[in-house]
Each structure stands twice: as structure tokens, then as C-alpha cells.
Design brief:
Blueprint: H1 2-21, E1 40-44, E2 56-63, E3 66-69, E4 73-75, E5 79-80, E6 86-91, E7 98-101, E8 112-114, E9 117-124, E10 131-137, E11 141-144, E12 157-159, E13 165-169, E14 172-176, E15 184-185, H2 187-196, E16 199-200, E17 206-207, E18 210-211, H3 215-221, E19 234-241, E20 244-252, E21 257-262, E22 267-268, E23 272-273, H4 283-294, H5 298-310, E24 314-320, E25 325-331, E26 344-350, E27 363-365
Length: 377
């Protein structure tokens, strides 16, 4: 009985063991990993194809040392994680200025590439104070440099020719045109004519505040007849008499005689502008005064101040002095206290591009308040 039970147990065990070996196997589950783009910021090392040096791109993927970027494909070796060089550009308004980087050997050129660090920049130009500055280059830099003139050197240039139409005499602008000795008009018409008169001083300055002069003003002009280009004889004044309203005074400026004349009669007219400019100021201060009070730009104010202070310089004669030279007889329009020209000199200069076509418009350098004429350009 015991043997039968044991045999039965063994048979059941073998059957169960066989059933386990034939049951299906279950493989373990594997999690899928999706490949994400790198999206890393990189910088281009040098110009190559459509890429330029210093350009920032986004690195998406790398395949066989080829970088797939937001702009396209480029060899990975041309990219860097941190910029190793930056661009320096120095801007100046002067064509002949010299720009140097003093603490390195390579010569400066516009847009030069340099490693991060400190650099000493120098900008120089003849007759100007030098500019020096240390910069710390940690990014691209556009440096704008303007230079100051050296003391006692020129502040600008003027064209050597006389202002037409007026003369500045005893702090007044006097009309000086052909009409002043050619046309006569009634007193009423003379007043209207002066009120409407406009004379161009510079490209942007026009005198438009003329009046008929008083008898006293016309008499004072008699002392300066030699400065006028157009001189008639008898001129209307604005002086009248309340008791004799049909008459106005005239002045015979050659002999300083005065008299009364019916307003309906006709005689010569010379208008006056009475702007009172502070000529006691230096040339520099007068220029600032004109800019502040009349809103002139610097060039107009400076040239106008020169004319007020010294009179517009003019060329009296031009002589040939050999094949390569010209001689200019130069003088200023104003007289000094000794009744001599402020400046009177013969200049011999070499002919160049500035005077081949229009020698009467040669440019001369203005030096300072004492010496307004110097080198010819």
C-alpha cells in the first residue's frame, strides 16, 4: 500500500515537472528612448560658406563631425562654445587721421579681430590734440572718436572772396549794390524798398531787417566812402519834420551837406541794417554768441564772425609765377587803427587741384584772432 502511494506521488511529481517546462516564457519589457535635439548655442570661428566669424548659431545634432545647426551644416571644428575673439571698429570723421593700438604689434584696420583683453587706442591728426584711451574688449565694440583742435590753430576754413551786396561799417550793415547809384525813387517807395530788401550773407544767413537810414547815420557813412563800391550823390534819409510832413531830409554824402526835399521827388537810396554785434568778444566767443542768439550752425556762425571781426578777405590780383606757381595779392576788407589794411601780403603758392579751375576760390586756413590768413590749401 505504501509502495503504491509512493509510486503515485512520483508519477504526479513528474507530470507537474513536465508541465512547467512546456509553459510559455515572458520576455521583459524594454523602455523606448526618444532622441532629443541638442539645442546648444555655439559660435562660428571663421568665415566659411554662408557662415561668418562671430555668428551665433544653435547646434541641433552632430553626425560624423558635421554639425547640424539652425543655419545649416558646418564642420564641427569651426564652432566654439565661447567666443575667442571680438571685433573692434574705430570711427572718426577725419580722412587723414591715424589710428593705432599701442600695446600690440598688428596694425589696426577697421573691424580688426582681437582676443578678449585690454587695449590702448590712439587717434592722431595734424593740428589736433591726440586721443588715447584704454578699452576692455569683452564684446564687439564700435568706438566713435572726435578730436579737439590744438590751441592757436585754425577752427575752420573760409573761401577767399568778398561778401557781395553789403559792407559792415561802424557796427552797421550798409547796402552796397549797383542800384545804390543807378536808381532813384520817391521817399515813400524808398521806405517800402528797404523794408522788403533781403541780402544773402552766407548760404544760410540772409539779412532782412533793413530800414531807411537817419540823417546822422548817412553823415557818419561819409567818412567811409572809400569802402563803398557804388556811390551816388544825394540820398534819402528817414528824418522828417512834423511841421512839414511832405518833406524829408537828404544827405549829400560826398560833401556832408544836408537839406530838405519833397517826398514826391526822386533821389538815390541806400538801406541800413542795425544789428548790434558784440565785436569786443573774441572770435570764439562771438561765434558762440551768434549760434545762441540767432540759431546759426557752427560753420555759418564762424564764417560770419570772421567777417564781422576782420572783414571778408579778398584777392586783389593773381599773377603767374612760372609753370607750377601762382602769386596772390591778398588783403582783408577792414582797416586797422592806423588806417592800414589788417593784412596785406603777396603769397606765392604751388598750383594744385584746388586752384586749377577757380583760382579765386582758393581756401586759406584761419589760425587765430591775430592771424587770420595763412597756408593755402
Amino acid at each position: 500500500m505504501i509502495k503504491q502511494s509512493l509510486l503515485y506521488f512520483i508519477i504526479i511529481f513528474l507530470i507537474s515537472l513536465l508541465g512547467c517546462s512546456q509553459s510559455p516564457t515572458v520576455e521583459p519589457k524594454v523602455k523606448e528612448i526618444k532622441k532629443e535635439p541638442l539645442n546648444t548655442i555655439m559660435y562660428v570661428k571663421q568665415d566659411i560658406k554662408s557662415f561668418y566669424k562671430g555668428e551665433k548659431v544653435t547646434l541641433i545634432e552632430i553626425l560624423n563631425d558635421i554639425a547640424i545647426t539652425s543655419k545649416g551644416e558646418i564642420p564641427l571644428k569651426y564652432l566654439e562654445e565661447q567666443r575667442s575673439e571680438y571685433q573692434l571698429t574705430v570711427h572718426t570723421p577725419y580722412k587723414n587721421s591715424r589710428i593705432r593700438i599701442l600695446n600690440i604689434k598688428p596694425k589696426y584696420h577697421s573691424g580688426i579681430w582681437l582676443k578678449p583683453g585690454k587695449y590702448e587706442i590712439e587717434v592722431t591728426l595734424a593740428k589736433h590734440l591726440p586721443y588715447k584711451k584704454w578699452i576692455n574688449l569683452q564684446d564687439d565694440i564700435d568706438l566713435i572718436v572726435t578730436l579737439k583742435r590744438k590751441p592757436n590753430t585754425s577752427m575752420g576754413f573760409i573761401t577767399w572772396q568778398e561778401i557781395e551786396g553789403v559792407k559792415y561799417i561802424d557796427k552797421n550793415f550798409w547796402q552796397d549794390q549797383a542800384i545804390n547809384k543807378q536808381k532813384k525813387m520817391t521817399w515813400e517807395n524808398a521806405q517800402t524798398y528797404c523794408e522788403n530788401l533781403k541780402i544773402k550773407i552766407t548760404d544760410n544767413i540772409i539779412l532782412d531787417d533793413f530800414d531807411l537810414p537817419t540823417k546822422k547815420e548817412l553823415l557818419s557813412l561819409s567818412n567811409h566812402i572809400s569802402k563803398l563800391d557804388y556811390v551816388g550823390s544825394i540820398y534819402w534819409s528817414s528824418s522828417t519834420d512834423k511841421k512839414h510832413d511832405k518833406f524829408a531830409q537828404y544827405v549829400y554824402i560826398n560833401s556832408k551837406k544836408t537839406g530838405w526835399y519833397n517826398k514826391s521827388g526822386s533821389t538815390y537810396v541806400r538801406c541800413i541794417s542795425r544789428k548790434n554785434y558784440p565785436l569786443e568778444l573774441s572770435l570764439k566767443e562771438l561765434t558762440k554768441y551768434l549760434m545762441k542768439n540767432y540759431s546759426y550752425n557752427y560753420i555759418d556762425a564762424y564764417e560770419f564772425a570772421l567777417n564781422l571781426q576782420y572783414g571778408k578777405p579778398i584777392i586783389k590780383k593773381i599773377h603767374n609765377a612760372g609753370k607750377q606757381y601762382l602769386k596772390f595779392d591778398l588783403r582783408s576788407q577792414k582797416y586797422n587803427k592806423n588806417k592800414k589794411y589788417f593784412y596785406n601780403e603777396v603769397k606765392k603758392v604751388k598750383i594744385d587741384k584746388y586752384m586749377t579751375s577757380k583760382p579765386t576760390k582758393v581756401k586759406f586756413e584761419i589760425i587765430n584772432d591775430q592771424h587770420i590768413f595763412r597756408n593755402i590749401f
